[in-house]
Specification:
Protein name: Integral membrane protein
Distance between the termini: 8 Å
Number of helices: 11
Oligomer: single chain
Transmembrane segments: 69-87, 93-110, 115-132, 152-174, 195-216, 228-246
Number of domains: 1
Biased composition (Basic and acidic residues): 8-23
Radius of gyration: 24 Å
Shape: globular
Strand content: under 5%
InterPro entries: UCP010219
Keywords: Membrane, Transmembrane, Transmembrane helix
Structural class: mainly alpha
């Protein structure tokens, strides 16, 4: 179409938002509560360790702590298992696990990186070592993880009941939805389902690992192995599935109009 002066008209149509990227309405952006809502969603996601990449999608590896973070969560338990398998002595095995966790803290100090994850790891390994040393049972090194899983399950189920599903609080930040998704029944259901998926991952850990724990020392190797496999790898898989399930519908592009 041309106009009277022969110049080409400007295309004033807004570009279609990229797939899996929700743009808030102008009213939501301009509202007086928008800054606090955005800060709340962003702060919750960041505290939970959720990150987004340059494309605006969730960065699965970084959200799991990156390569170093995954190593911090895996190696102390692995070192304990190897040391106990070789020595059959609980004390040096616990010391080896604690030393491994402490090394990661020192590494973060040298790198001048946040110590939160490393210190949490040291505390977790310390409590696990204390439990195992107190009872004299090697399998009790892994019992703290059961209670941690139960606490997360209870918190996530409660968030669904209260209609504040954790998946929405996390993914809503990554998708620039803030907390606006709570006003959409379909989005609320999607994020509730995504949260149930994460709950299922945590519950699966308990279903598999608790029977191995009650086997005592004969089940220790299997317990430790499943603990490693169902740790960060399963968490990343569950996070990815939840991300796909909660994916918003792509907004269709408007058909172009032309004049005769």
């Amino acid at each position: 179409m041309t106009v009277a002066n022969g110049s080409e008209p400007k295309d004033t149509r807004r570009p279609t938002p990229p797939e899996d990227h929700v743009v808030l309405p102008d009213a939501a952006k301009a509202g007086p509560d928008s800054p606090s809502v955005s800060e709340l969603a962003a702060g919750y996601a960041e505290k939970a360790g959720l990150h987004r990449n340059s494309a605006g999608h969730v960065d699965m590896l970084k959200s799991a702590g990156g390569v170093q973070g995954i190593a911090e969560s895996i190696l102390p338990g692995l070192v304990f298992l190897v040391a106990f398998t070789i020595t059959r002595d609980l004390t040096p095995s616990l010391i080896a696990a604690l030393a491994t966790a402490a090394v990661f803290t020192v590494v973060r100090l040298i790198q001048r990186r946040p110590l939160t994850q490393a210190l949490a790891g040291v505390v977790g390994v310390g409590i696990s070592a204390w439990l195992a040393n107190t009872t004299g049972k090697a399998e009790d090194f892994y019992v703290l993880g059961f209670f941690t899983n139960i606490a997360y399950i209870a918190g996530m189920v409660l968030s669904i009941v209260l209609k504040w599903p954790v998946a929405g609080l996390l993914f809503g930040f990554v998708r620039n939805e803030g907390l606006e998704w709570r006003k959409d029944a379909e989005r609320l259901r999607a994020y509730s389902l995504g949260t149930w998926i994460v709950v299922a991952v945590l519950a699966l850990r308990l279903v598999v690992q608790v029977p191995l724990y009650f086997m005592g020392e004969p089940g220790l190797t299997a317990l430790a192995t499943t603990r490693l496999l169902m740790g960060a790898p399963l968490y990343i898989l569950g996070l990815w599935v939840a991300w796909l399930v909660t994916k918003p519908a792509t907004q269709p592009s408007k058909p172009s109009s032309s004049a005769d």
